What we know:
This protein is of the alpha+beta class. It has helices at residues 16-31, 49-58, 69-84, 126-129, 160-166, 169-179, 252-259, 307-310, 327-333, 335-347, 357-361, 370-375, and strands spanning 36-37, 60-63, 111-114, 148-153, 184-193, 201-204, 223-228, 238-240, 268-269, 277-281, 286-288, 297-305. An 8-stranded mixed β-sheet has the order 1-2-10-7-12-5-4-3.
Amino acid sequence: MDGSNAAATVTYGSEEAAMQAYLRQGEQRALALGNRGPIRFTASGELHPDILDAYWRCGFYVFEGVLKAEELADIERDVKEILDRLPAERGAAVDAKGRPALAIDCKAPTLLWSKPLGDPFGGTDLANGRHPVKMYEPQAAADAPKEVVYLILGSLQFSEAALRVYGHPQLLAVAAAVNGPDFAPFNEALFIKEPGRGASVAWHQDGTTHWKSPAWDQGIHGFNFMAQLYGCTAANGVWVVPGSHKLGKVDIKTMAMQAGTERLPDAVPIIAGPGDVAITNRQSLHSSFANTSKDWRVTLNFGFHRRTSVLGVRAGGVHNKEAVYDADRIRERARLIGYAIDARHRRFPHETAYVYKPHADQSLSYRWDDEAKAGIKDYNLLDLSI
């Protein structure tokens, strides 16, 4: 698992030539959008307006070089340990070495499984039916396992390195610039796109709650950060239809029918290198194809909301059961931000730690220690899903 030398074992069969042309053309369109570069701030400390303009224009932006080699090495160690501890198969209590498996005692939804190169959500009623179009499912190699884990929810409880990324001061400053200084958390996950096995994620928009709200606008459902351990390509990365976050709820079935394929003609891939972090509007129409390439994709995914989008709002029911989010629940869920800031400062003391305004305003302080580690088990039962 080094992100580069795994052998590709499968193709798209008779569709391979058309798929490869689509990947090449999509990459060319993506790199011409003008929505990538390092995180930049103005002399007064504000996120550079050119970045915000490009983000709101396209619905995503690629921040280059955010995570350095030392931090990527920390993340890789944790990811390898996580993968080594996965259940030997769905429902197993032990891993392949006979040890108690990761997350077997978790109450919250944690491990999502798929057949290799499958599409577990497309064309089903799962997740409120928000993935209406089935993606093409290539045939996996004969020696592939019956199922693979492709998504791990509540990932901060399993990786201190991921928690430290969550507390990155520049990323949190971006969150404040987009969602306001009182931004609220959403959820966190680890996406695993193994070469020749990684599942697809069918076309969808993430928001479920505010589509018909009188206050609806292009940012009401928040955004996700996607930090890349090995980078991502047109073949294994997320694809986005630029500008679709401005359109409201789109008719995905009709779009695919008009295109005659799930390869939507206006979509572009998120192209990123190791340590790059993409920010993607949750209302953007997006997907990813089955990973028939030779490259791993490991993505640390974590999102944030405007506080006004969640306070007093009933849960969307995708990441947790329906509930009304009050100030106490938001504060309890946001303790992960406090723990992340402290954990990061301990690992990278040369950085200026981020000051999260809701914690500062309430004189709340959080210390990352053994008690805190034990206390975040199943923290994602409190995810703020809208």
